[in-house]
Amino acid sequence: MRSYRRHRLLVPVLLCALAVLAARPTAAHKEPGSGTGTGADTGLSAEVARLYEEAAVATQQYEASRKQAEEQRAEAERAEALLDAQRRHIAALHEDLGRIARAQYRSSGGLPVAAHMILADSPEGLMRGQHAFSQADLAVNNAISKNRRAEARLAADEAKAAAQWQALEKRNTQLAGLKADIEQKLETARSQLQGQADAAAAAGACRGAVRLDQPETGFADGEWVAPVETYELSASYGSGGARWSNRHTGQDFAVPIGTPVRAVGAGRVVKVSCGGAFGMEIVLKHAGGYYTQYAHLAALAVDQGEHVSPGQWIGQSGTTGNSTGPHLHFEARVTPESGSAVDPVAWLAARGVSL
Length: 355
Description:
Blueprint: H1 2-23, H2 39-107, H3 113-118, H4 123-203, E1 232-233, E2 251-254, E3 260-262, E4 267-273, E5 280-285, E6 291-300, E7 307-308, E8 313-317, E9 328-333, E10 341-342, H5 344-349
Antiparallel strand pairs: 1-2, 2-9, 3-8, 4-5, 4-7, 5-6, 6-8, 6-9, 9-10
């Protein structure tokens, strides 16, 4: 009897389970800012990040090669100057030799030194004349030979320096072409990324986190860093302008679209949103009750609730929301919401980060 009752109870349970399975959608609906981006989103964001790094490397290589070429060109110019000086010295020695010969001819009554030696009155006079003549001739010839050897060495050095400079100039041209090609691809990818971001911000629905290959930062949990690695500071905290209803509440970092944005310190993602004046934004909570905001983004690399480490890429910069151009708007706050901002430059400086 107990076994029969168990079977009777099992039938309704199985029917309920089948009904639940039949009612489930084929794909789970994701809340804005949750989950991960689509394959296309991931590919484009990753492409921008990759090209961003490649452009930085290409620029460094180009600048290093350009500097090396300038140094090599200066070396070639120094070699040419030394060679000219050596040639002038040899010409002066030749002139001195001619002057000595002319002086000897005049002082000997028009007879060359060799004739005077032949007509010498005594063997001693002959020997003295021969010795003086030999010494003068040897000194001049030695000086000329020495300088000609130096001239040959300098000419070889000059040719070598010029060849190295020309090779570096050729490599510079190649690097400049590679750099321009990467930058063109990067500009196209940035434009596409911003187009996707604008569409998401207009719809008020974030596309979800796009997982990027994180760099090796080497930062400890207690360290603090700037929100972007390379930047120019633009609008500062407390500045006025027609773009803001009150004073500017953060520090702007002028950076191109797609620039990786870093968590300034260890924390937790408490807000991810799209739309509104800040466009695509992230808010982190840090120890001590402080919060940081990263706004006008073009892509997100974290989801709400995640924990982040110092220097971790949490998104990519853009120009969504109330923005007149590509930049990162960064705030330090005492609450997660607007209206509680403190001076972010001073806040970072107190944590050992000088902008």
